[in-house]
Design a protein that fits this description.
By secondary structure, this protein is α/β, with parallel strands linked by helices. It folds into 2 domains: 139 residues, Alpha-Beta Complex (Aspartate Aminotransferase, domain 1); 262 residues, Type I PLP-dependent aspartate aminotransferase-like (Major domain) (Aspartate Aminotransferase, domain 2), CATH 3.40.640. The protein has 15 helices and 15 strands. The strands form 4 sheets. It has a 7-stranded mixed sheet, with helices on both faces. Strand 9 and strand 10 form a beta hairpin. The longest helix is centred in the N-terminal third of the chain and has 20 residues. The protein is globular, with a radius of gyration of 22 Å. The chain starts with a helix and ends with a helix.
Length: 423
């Protein structure tokens, strides 16, 4: 396997110095990952040699751009175990999740006709999430419930943030129409067992929606094997550009879900009285397409595939274990979630609260040492409330991090309370 030290050389930004000439230690990949040269060059080459509007012209640049756009779709689909037509390009994962929620709202209002009847929900129906969701996979379902009159319910979690699978039968009832849940927590790093949730949802006839933002970049993911109906993930967390995400939908689901956004690029015919839609995935891709971003996302996929996702997952497990174990041993430092997942897998995340020190102050001490981490609530108020906190300091890894990075985080964390004179 290529070593992390060799991989670091592929990421130009990691060569820079930050505060007071300190070398950059980047531990904020759960927020956004850095980009290898291969991705930067792919985007640059597209704009320099190929740029054209896709699916809208007969000239050479339009043809080449369309080919690059669709080749990128096929590459990303392969990476997550899907067919090319099951991948919809979106602006980001939040947009992808909202595409499903808004499509269901439109179906519930009668758009899509009888073909979309399976998506209709209303009073008496239930939308199920978990108590560990990122806001992007909670707020859209709250709003869908408000629009349709359905009831939002949630699967509880235990003291360490594990989704409680023992309560599935009582929470996912015969009234459930949608079950939306995270694959990996962006706070604890815990991997949610997908199979029992999907099995229960299928038993009651509910649609399943997976937030795969923190899983696709860090571990092997096969969406067909997982059996979910929809899934969302983003390019920028998996070494790709910002401004690009993907919605996966099983082919038969995408063909009947109404579009969330209306306009050019998604329509088959338009009269002054009515409009018909193109087949999926184009029916969900109104407006100007993120072509260069898709090309860059495909380059990121190829980069990760060259390393091997099993290798990526194992490397990050090891780094996460170093950070969590080290943090848990520090006096006055509380680790959110378990040190060891037990029967649950963990990715390379460690979120902590330091007694007597505000999370932003913790981040500043680390930043002075050149260590970039995330501070605040990480778009997850409910999970922090569950832990009795308003925020935390989170370190998160990717392929370019080393064991020295993980130990530097623990060492810097140990210096926080003494720096502020807290005992």
């Amino acid at each position: 396997m290529i070593t992390p030290e060799q991989i670091r050389d592929d990421f130009p930004i990691l060569a820079r110095e930050v505060r007071n000439g300190k070398p950059l230690i980047y531990l904020d990949s759960a927020a956004t990952a850095q980009k290898p040269t291969a991705v930067i060059e792919a985007v640059d080459a597209f704009y320099r040699t190929t740029n054209g509007a896709v699916q809208r012209g007969a000239h050479l640049l339009a043809e080449e751009s369309t080919a690059a756009f669709e080749d990128a779709r096929a590459t990303v689909a392969r990476f997550v175990g899907a067919q090319s037509g099951e991948i919809v390009w979106t602006e980001n994962a939040t947009y992808a999740l909202n595409t499903v929620a808004t499509g269901i709202a439109h179906a519930s209002a009668g758009i899509g006709g009888e073909a979309a009847a399976r998506y209709r929900i209303g009073p008496g129906d239930e939308i199920v999430v978990t108590a560990t969701e990122h806001h992007a996979n909670l707020v859209p379902w709250q709003q869908l419930a408000a629009i349709t009159g359905a009831t939002l319910t949630w699967i509880p979690i235990d003291g360490e943030g594990r989704v409680d699978l023992d309560n599935l039968d009582t929470v996912i009832t015969d009234r459930a129409k949608v079950v939306a849940f995270t694959h990996v927590s962006n706070v604890t790093g815990l991997v949610t067992p997908v199979e029992p949730i999907v099995a229960r949802a299928k038993h009651v006839g509910a649609i399943t929606v997976l937030d795969a933002c923190q899983s696709v970049p860090h571990m092997p993911v096969d969406l067909h094997a997982l059996g979910v109906d929809f899934a969302a993930f983003s390019g920028h967390k998996m070494l790709g550009p910002t401004g690009i995400g993907a919605l996966y939908g099983r082919a038969e689901m995408l063909e009947t879900l109404p579009p969330a956004v209306f306009g050019g690029g998604s329509v088959a015919t338009v009269t002054m009285e009515q409009t018909t839609w193109l087949d999926a995935p184009q029916r969900f891709e109104s407006g100007t397409q993120p072509v260069a971003q898709a090309v860059g996302m495909a380059a990121a996929v190829e980069y990760l595939e060259a390393i091997g996702m099993e290798n990526v997952a194992q490397h990050e497990r090891e780094l996460g274990a170093i950070m969590r174990a080290g943090a848990a041993e520090l006096e006055g430092v509380r680790l959110l979630g378990p040190v060891d997942g037990g029967d649950r897998d963990l990715i390379g995340i460690a979120a902590v609260a330091v007694e007597g020190v505000h999370t932003h102050d913790v981040g500043q001490v680390l930043d002075d040492r050149g260590i970039a981490v995330r501070v605040g609530h990480h778009c997850n108020h409910p999970l922090h409330k569950h832990f009795g906190l308003t925020g935390s300091t989170r370190a998160s890894t990717h392929v370019y991090n080393t064991e020295d990075d993980a130990r530097a985080f623990v060492e810097a964390l140990a210096a926080v309370r003494p720096f502020f004179g807290v005992s």
